[in-house]
Amino acid sequence: MKKKTLIELFIYLIAAVVAIALFLSSKPEQKPIQINSDFKVGGQSSRGVEHDFIPMQQSKH
User: Fold this and answer.
1) pLDDT (tens digit, 0 to 9) for every residue of the chain, 61 residues total?
2) Is 0.85 topped by the overall pTM?
3) I need a surface site. Which of 10, 14, 20, 56 has the fewest CB within 10 A?
4) CA of 1: how far to CAs of 7, 9, 13, 22, in Å?
């Protein structure tokens, strides 16, 4: 019974080491961010305070 538990632990350790090695060796691709030309950020309100606003549709009940 104890030998079976040690083998199972060894398999989990190998899987963890492989996962960590893959995580550290991966190089994510940098993709350019595409923003619509009509998107505006930081507009000024009548008080002169800058704010960002994204309009949301109200659900019709």
Assistant:
1) 799 999 999 999 999 999 999 999 988 788 888 887 777 666 555 555 555 566 677 766 6
2) no
3) 56
4) 10, 13, 19, 32
